[in-house]
Amino acid sequence: MATAAPAQDTLSAFDGAKGFMPLAEGLALYAAAVQAGALGLPLLEVGTYCGRSTLLLADAARAAGITAITVDHHRGSEEQQPGWEYHDPSVVDPELGRMDTLPTFRRTLHQAGLEDHVVAVVGRSPQVARLWGTPLGLVFIDGGHTEEHAGGDYEGWVPHLAPGGLLVIHDVFPDPADGGQAPYRVFRRALASGAFTEVSVTDSLRVLRRTAEGI
Ligand SMILES: C[S@@+](CC[C@H](N)C(=O)[O-])C[C@H]1O[C@@H](n2cnc3c(N)ncnc32)[C@H](O)[C@@H]1O
């Protein structure tokens, strides 16, 4: 069977979008979203930024006739603030002097023709998760990379992941020399819970399947 691929327009938009996801990881995320789409439940992303990864979830959601939800406060993570390694001054609101990635995200999604397949939620992940009540087919964790934020994303969203659903975690670095350890600890926690089985590893992107209840 041929592997499903995103539409060429989506790949071009991904290529041109601001963001942090390399293509190989993007394609692994897309493959997971296509698999999870078969459950007929929404796909949820924590960490929209400018929509680079959202484009791929949106494309998979369109193909499956479902919706991708993406959650972000759009004020940037710690490492994206002025003076830090991943700061981009072009996504600062000139009036407020604070980061605001929402306009760029909306432009990216509109230009790719994928707006109809995404619901963007602007807010803090734990606050949104507390209000959530719909089972999810996929949870993609790519929000804040501190212990507090990555752990909060796991605790907030994983309870909503349906049986057979996929948990995808970005920036999992077993070796501290390669990057921060919070996403890796979330990955270890998921495996240790006994509720997940590892499905694939693509560079720093890990895909796990929910095979039992619990978090
Ligand atoms: C690494 S970027 C996401 C990258 C994006 N997935 C991509 O592929 O380009 C992390 C994002 O998470 C958001 N974020 C960090 N902590 C958050 C929180 N507690 N609630 C909501 N969004 C958060 C930041 O604003 C930032 O846009």
TrEMBL record:
<keyword id="KW-0489">Methyltransferase</keyword>
<dbReference type="GO" id="GO:0008168">
    <property type="term" value="F:methyltransferase activity"/>
</dbReference>
<dbReference type="Pfam" id="PF13578">
    <property type="entry name" value="Methyltransf_24"/>
</dbReference>
<dbReference type="InterPro" id="IPR029063">
    <property type="entry name" value="SAM-dependent_MTases_sf"/>
</dbReference>
<protein>
    <submittedName>
        <fullName>Class I SAM-dependent methyltransferase</fullName>
    </submittedName>
</protein>
<dbReference type="GO" id="GO:0032259">
    <property type="term" value="P:methylation"/>
</dbReference>
<keyword id="KW-0808">Transferase</keyword>
